[in-house]
Amino acid sequence: MNTMLLPTPTALQDIPVPEDIRLLADATPTAARAMFQAEGVNAWFGRTHVLKDVSLDVAQRRVTALIGPSGCGKSTFIRCLNRLHEVVPGARVQGRILLDGQDIYQRGVDPVLLRRRVGMVFQRPNPFPTLSIRDNVLAGWKLAGQRPRDPEGLVERSLRQAALWDEVKDTLDRSGSSLSGGQQQRLCIARALALEPEVLLMDEPCSALDPIATAKVEELIHELRERYTIVIVTHSMQQAARVSDFTAFLYLGELVEFGATEAIFTRPANSRTEDYITGRFG
Amino acid sequence: MKSHTDQSYEEELGKLREELLLMGAKVEGMVAASVKAFDEHDYDLARRTIENDHDINRLEVEIDGFCLSILARRQPVASDLRFITSALKLVTDLERIGDLAVNISERTIDLASDPPQHSYPGLGRMAEVVQSMVHDALDAFVATDPAKAQWVIEQDRVVDSLYLHLFHEVLVLMMDDRSAVHRGMGVQAVAKHLERIGDHATNLAERVVFLAKGRDIRHQGDQEPDC
């Protein structure tokens, strides 16, 4: 199996990371500091083994795309990164996932606090329909029973980061469901950003959006990568090619290939990757 | 390699390959005809070769358009992307080879009034090597055979050496015999055209290596040595 592991977290602290690491064609995820290190991750739904010994590193402040056919385990993998997989009845995980050097499955780690650090955006925009745009942005705080120091400032900052502020600044009291699909998805991104996470997981965030809304979300991903580590699951290979720095191809629960996006889409090393991305599968 | 799930895409790529091979075969034929016409002072054959260039130009435009259409509609990646981008470059080299065959034919016609007084065996040898380079580069493309392509690339040095040798041989001859100057300059020009055809065949072969291995080997000899 193809695994690309970074040095140990301790060793990583000693490596100076340039502000802007230029990704060359042959760059590998080892060129950047690892935010997540997944080591030998296995996952099951009941008796179905959906992730098989997956090891890969997610580079900090880079966009990592997961591609592969339906059922290959890509959504399960990102749901392991914020411990959402385990909330499904009968689901379990084995292996180690380190977030900034700390094992997120270690006893004593609070999954709720973990999910504040690792935000998630889902396939279908899911704003709370009865809440206003403002309250949608603050929903994460309210659900946690907390109140941010400067709610109005946080709402504006989050909506600006989600590239939605200019469109909704005069209608913050209107319902979140009054927005278009693309705006709703950016509202969900703002909601995730309001919790000031370090990582943003995106599970097919554009699959329900039209091309213009998709382009806006992709532009947003491009801007957010300056501050956040992003992992995106997508069925669109063109989208993976457009937005990501690194791409992982999963098939039948196994990591087939992982490398710099430019290399994966111009000269993949594995024939199964080649077959999949060129449409010679099945 | 497996075929594409989308059969219409597979057919489009197959059609592109066929068009490239058709253009390659026509160009190869033009080179052979131009060399034969020069060697045998066959002015009719030279004229027909010049006329054939229209087909090559038409194919270049057609294939370019077809590649653009595939790029726009299919967004090819990996080996498909390398194939399409290579096709765009291959047609340019093939078209230029066609132009050079036309240049050789024009020389043949130009020298019609100046019968040969000397033989130039080096020119025949050069034409032989250059024609085999074009032929083998196209074979390497058909079979996606990087080893054969590499062989073609190595032949370019042979052609360069033959050219230099012939150039000096003709120069000495012209210095000795002023009546040989007109034809001698024609022979030097034809040799230069053949040498350029060799360069374009080398380009074709380098694209085959890129196609097969995803590695760009152009200009490797141009790099400055590490200090």
Describe this entry's structure for a reader.
The complex is a heterodimer of chains A (282) and B (227). Chain A is α/β, with parallel strands linked by helices and 282 residues long. Chain A is 33% helix and 24% strand. Chain A has a domain at 31-126 and 205-277: Rossmann fold. Chain A contains twelve helices and ten strands. In chain A, the strands form two sheets. A six-stranded mixed β-sheet of chain A has the order 6-7-8-3-9-10, with helices on both faces. Chain A is globular, with a radius of gyration of 19 Å. In chain A, 46% of the residues are buried. With 227 residues, chain B is mainly alpha-helical. Chain B has one domain (7-220): Phosphate transport system protein phou homolog 2, domain 2 (Methane Monooxygenase Hydroxylase, Chain G, domain 1, Up-down Bundle), CATH 1.20.58.220. Chain B is built from six helices and no strands. Chain B has helices spanning 7-40, 43-74, 78-110, 121-143, 146-176, 181-213. In chain B, α4 (121-143) packs parallel to α6. Chain B starts with 6 loop residues before the first helix and ends in a 14-residue tail after the last helix. Chains A and B meet through α10 and α12 of A and α3 of B.
Total of domains of chain B? 1
Identify the CATH homologous superfamily of the domain at 31-126 and 205-277 in chain A. P-loop containing nucleotide triphosphate hydrolases
CATH architecture descriptor name of the domain at 31-126 and 205-277 in chain A = 3-Layer(aba) Sandwich
The count of strands of chain A amounts to: 10
Roughly what fraction of the amino acids of chain B lie in strands? under 5%
What count of helical segments of chain A does DSSP give? 12
Largest interface: A-B, 16 and 18 residues
CATH topology of chain B: Methane Monooxygenase Hydroxylase, Chain G, domain 1
Helix content of chain B: over 70%
How much helix, percentage-wise, in residues of chain A? 25-40%
Report the mean per-residue pLDDT of chain A as an integer: 88
Radius of gyration of chain B: 20 Å
